[in-house]
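Archive maintenance. Older records in this collection stored only the sequence; we are now back-filling the structure field for every entry so that each record is complete. The fields below show one back-filled record exactly as it appears after the update. Entries are processed alphabetically, and DUF5134 domain-containing protein is next in the queue.

ARCHIVE ENTRY
Title: DUF5134 domain-containing protein
Organism field: Streptomyces variabilis
Length field: 188
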Amino acid sequence: MHGPGSSGWLLVALCAATGAYCLLRMRSGVEEQRRAAGGEALMGFGMAAMAVPAAVFTPPAWAWPLWAVVFGAAGLHALWAARASARHLHHVVGAGAMVYMAVVMAAAPRGAHHGAAGTPALTAALLLYFTAYVLVTGARLVPVAAVAGGPGTGPGAGSGTRWGDRPELARACRLSMGIAMVAMLMMM
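Back-filled structure field:
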């Protein structure tokens, strides 16, 4: 969060690009994918805004409580959606992490946005969760040798799937946000 120069800008670029791709995924014909993509777009753009280097822009004091409210509402929405699918629990944890970071930043002295101290145990727990999430999601992206003659192995395989509906792209999107979350938590 408000990391030093080049690493902060890399986080901004990664999160903004991920948020933009998630906005495009909201055009999907699959309702569940549209819903997930909306939450992920909010998360991507929120993380991009939080990662802007403090030397360039220091948000006003009222911005951090506003972020906490926005991501608190997103977390409640994800918790409500988790009734139908446990996949939404990750969104609850992500929104909770964003609320936590916003609260820590609100409590930090003005201008001390890099290395603001939160609760070490909570920061460590979130770091462990997101590190495990990144490793599991990354492992799911590793291609598995396709069985010869199986579905998706012939010429033109996947040509009927729109690029915004491809599950591997959605996983890559989630992986990049997980990596960014690890980096942001490490800066706390």
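Update note: The chain is about 65% helix and 0% strand. The longest helix spans residues 120-141.
Entry marked complete.
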